Amino acid sequence: MRAVLVWLIAALIVAVTPFAFAKVAIVITAAFAYMHRRATLNHALGIGATWLVLAVVTEMAMSAHLHHAWTELLGPPSHPAMRMLLLIAWVAAPALFARESEVDAAHRPADR
């Protein structure tokens, strides 16, 4: 539930922000606000995938409701670089703040 609430706040701010790099910064800030101390990379990527699905579903719903394309969360198709940047940001931003799991740490070779 917390992940959806943080995504909703981030999505509202992203929707009213006109600049791509500001949108990416907002997504990264939201990811920092969401991620907790013990969140692993698997958890972070799951949250990122959830956020991307929510963004896609929201854009589809808004486009259907408005009867024209609404691309505020993922960027317009006419700017593919910006669109790819935002797609990657929604998925990867939580992973920037993930911690190594105890299982992964146990399987890492010891430092010499």
Describe this protein's structure.
The protein is mostly helical and 112 residues long. The chain has one domain. The chain is 67% helix and 0% strand. The longest helix is centred in the middle third of the chain and has 26 residues. It starts with a helix and ends in a 5-residue tail after the last helix. The model has no long low-confidence stretch (mean pLDDT 90).
Task: Give a short overview.
The protein is mostly helical.
Quickly list its features.
112 residues, mainly alpha
Gross morphology is elongated
List the secondary-structure elements in sequence, H or E: HHHHH
Helix content: 55-70%
How many domains? The number is: 1
Tally the helices: 5
State the separation between the terminal residues, measured CA to CA: 43 Å
